[in-house]
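Why should sequence recovery work at all? Because a backbone constrains its sequence more than one might expect. Tight turns favour small or flexible residues, buried strands favour hydrophobic ones, and helices have their own preferences. The token representation captures these environments compactly. In the example below, the structure is given first.
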């Protein structure tokens, strides 16, 4: 009977296992897979439990010797990191497949199923599947150690601007958040006239300085202080300080240019209005609509100061407006603005409504103004201006008034705030107003839709007034209280630019 079974097995091209007698296909070991595994374990020497270090503060994994990587659970990057931990153990086998086995996120375990092959017993190829447990151990990375210490820094960038408001720093804050330059900072400290950014390396501080030079007109000075010196290795340890000074000119400031600078800008009028500040100062002459740009290097060669800012405004009402359509362009003058319209207006102070006193002036905002609009303006005739470049010329600067419900918001940096004064909320609202008025500045800022605000149509809204549409907003998953401190509150503000008296009206 046994002889007949062997004959049948041989006729079908099978042999019997030398250990258990089971018919199998011929192989160099003449053994079945079960018996072969009892004799040989190809996973011998491969670690079945490995430790992986994880930083809870920044949620990064350690890749030896000193690199920390951001990896999502069950991602390809995390699988690569786990396999590198087993690289020395897998040199004697061939890795065929690897993949994660699902575990609870809070279990602090990562299970990876591996499929390996190895040649055993006279050339037989054995394939085996096994599971490796990766135990997650908590360890704080060096960057988080420095953040927690708050005193361990090697470079600091001190940003300063000699102005009475902080609208420029609000704009810089949004640019830093958009380009993610705050990720390498150890600490951000807010002080009265600027911000301090602390870094663990000089290279990161230099990146911030280069970014500021490309963003706003500024200049900087670098200094360093010796901390320690190793006489044996001749290594020096320094702390570097970069003092960055931003030009003290902001949007809606009235300035008086030096005569040489005004002449080099195409015989531009000396009294101008700053309409925008990007990496250069954008100026407009309200008498002729001539525009010019002054970069940082030019400003520091020919410095000038602000005559008036939006804090020196009086309220007026427009009594009459006349658009100037055929204004003669002076030969040799610079570029003329196409975004503005020249107009003559008659205005009266709201505090002098019981009198017949009216004032005549010229404005570059004729495309925004209508009869009866309330405006805020500069009264230069009754102002104490102490500037060496002020002469007989009288500028004109006319705004409009809007009441608007704002259904968007901005994100903010995590700063160590100090004593910033009582008018900080007002300055922030003025910065939000600048974003609504200037679409060029708005392109550099990430604006998020505030889902807590319910869109409400109002009869006081002006269809011609600038606004931020839904297409300019981004979705934000985090719902938070807006900048006014009251969720869902209506934010009412007045957009002001300026208006001044002429000699003919005084």
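From this structural description, the recovered sequence reads:
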């Amino acid at each position: 009977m046994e002889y007949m079974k062997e004959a049948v097995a041989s006729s079908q091209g099978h042999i019997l296992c030398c250990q258990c007698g089971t018919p199998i296909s011929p192989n160099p070991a003449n053994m079945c897979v079960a018996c072969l595994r009892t004799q040989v374990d190809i996973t011998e020497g491969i670690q079945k439990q490995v430790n992986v270090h994880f930083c809870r503060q920044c949620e990064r994994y350690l890749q030896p010797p000193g690199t920390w990587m951001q990896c999502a659970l069950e991602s390809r990057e995390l699988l690569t990191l786990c396999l590198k931990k087993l690289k020395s153990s897998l040199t004697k086998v061939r890795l065929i497949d690897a993949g994660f086995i699902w575990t609870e996120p809070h279990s602090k375990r990562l299970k990876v199923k591996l499929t390996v092959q190895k040649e055993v017993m006279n050339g037989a190829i054995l394939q085996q599947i096994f599971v490796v447990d990766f135990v997650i151990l908590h360890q704080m990375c060096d960057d988080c150690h420095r953040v927690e210490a708050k005193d361990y820094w090697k470079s600091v960038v001190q940003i300063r601007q000699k102005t009475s408001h902080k609208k420029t720093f609000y704009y810089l804050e949004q640019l830093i958040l958009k380009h993610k330059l705050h990720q390498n900072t150890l600490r951000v400290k807010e002080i009265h006239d600027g911000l301090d950014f602390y870094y663990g390396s000089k290279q990161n501080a230099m990146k911030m300085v280069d970014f500021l030079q490309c963003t706003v007109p500024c200049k900087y000075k670098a200094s360093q202080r010796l901390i320690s010196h190793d006489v044996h290795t001749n290594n020096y340890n320094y702390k570097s300080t970069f003092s960055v000074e931003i030009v003290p000119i902001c949007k809606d400031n009235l300035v008086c240019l030096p005569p040489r600078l005004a002449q080099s800008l195409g015989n531009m009028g000396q009294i101008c209005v700053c309409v925008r500040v990007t990496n250069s100062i954008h100026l407009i002459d309200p008498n002729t609509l001539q525009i010019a740009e002054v970069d940082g290097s030019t400003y520091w060669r020919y410095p000038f100061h602000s005559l008036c800012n939006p804090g020196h405004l009086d309220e007026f009402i427009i009594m009459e407006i006349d658009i100037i359509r055929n204004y003669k362009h002076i030969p040799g003058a610079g570029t003329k603005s196409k975004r503005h319209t020249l107009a003559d207006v008659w205005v009266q102070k709201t505090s002098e409504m019981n009198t017949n006193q009216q004032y005549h002036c010229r404005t570059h905002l004729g495309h925004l103004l209508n009869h009866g609009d309330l405006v805020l303006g500069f009264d230069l005739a009754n102002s104490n201006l102490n500037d060496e470049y002020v002469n007989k010329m009288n500028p004109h600067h006319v705004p409009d008034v809007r009441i608007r419900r704002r259904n968007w918001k901005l994100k903010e940096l995590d700063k160590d705030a100090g004593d910033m004064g009582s008018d900080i909320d007002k300055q922030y609202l003025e910065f939000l107003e600048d974003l609504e008025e200037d679409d060029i500045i708005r392109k550099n800022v990430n604006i998020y839709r505030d889902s807590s605000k319910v869109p409400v149509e109002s009869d006081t809204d002006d269809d011609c007034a600038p606004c931020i549409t839904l297409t300019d907003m981004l979705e934000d998953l985090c719902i938070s209280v807006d900048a006014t401190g009251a969720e869902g509150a209506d934010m009412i503000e007045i957009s002001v630019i300026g208006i001044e008296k002429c000699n003919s009206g005084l």
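A few observations help interpret the result. Residues 1-11, 392-405, 454-465, 477-506 have pLDDT under 50 and may be disordered.
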